[in-house]
Amino acid sequence: MVKKIILVVLVLGLIGVGTGMYFFYKKPETVDDKKGIVVAAAALSAAYSTSEKAADSIYLNNVIEVTGKVGETEQNQDGGTMVILETGDPMAGVQCAMREKGVQVAKGQEVTIKGFCSGNGITGVSLTDCILKK
Amino acid sequence: MKKTVLTIAMMVAAATGVFAQKYMTRTAKVSFDATAQGSPEDIKAINNEVSNILDGKTGEMVFQVPVKSFKFERALMQEHFNENYMESDKYPKAEFKGAVTNLAGADFSKDGNFEVKVTGKLTIHGVTNDVTVPGSVTVKGTSVTLKAKFVAKLIDYKIEVPGVVADKVGKQAIIAIESTLAQK
To answer: Per the confidence metrics, is the pTM higher than 0.80?
Structure first.
């Protein structure tokens, strides 16, 4: 009986430690294996300028796959790249912060980028943790 | 004659940037440190996806921070930050709207460094407070770099820290801003 109790306590303890370690070392979730909402850059931008609330209810914090033409790129202070997709409105591009450093895209290139939508702002709709699909 | 003078004056004004003093970036950096004293681990995060617009003529500026874009060392911290503390589904943006108050000493049109005081409204977690923050400005050609560091008390923004993590998460956050804007 005592042996059994010790065994149960031991197993429970191991499960506890395992769970703790899993959460402690867990990596942030990525967009790679997730299915994204497919949308064109101009349509995404238009949805946000029509109604931010309605657009947030569809896109915010969700994975989206946005297609558009590269308008420009910006380098951040830590060497990361922000790819800005054209939408027809120069003050409202779709800005995609790329997860990996050294992403190469050319101005005018048609690309599809997958990332988490972090909402709309003064300079356009933001996507974070992005990867280049094509 | 008057016309010539006016034309020359306008050309000089255009060349020195009087008419075009709007600056912008989408990659300003905002970081914070909310580590409690003696905490076994650091509670800090970086966001390189901050939008910032500055009007060099009036000294007015806007910072907009997509909350979901703060990156932590550990996924669990990031999850708790978004879901429990900042509620980024409900409040996806943090924002500062304000202006330089000592504009007399601030010349964005020529190279140099100067100190500024910026007063405005800071909105975090849906709560807006009036703040005054000291900062520095560096002008180099057509780019302007703004730097500031200040402390925000979590309670002022209705961010509650549960007792179980009070030994790790402090009662305040030291917020650092560094933004290099290009003339538009």
So the answer is: yes
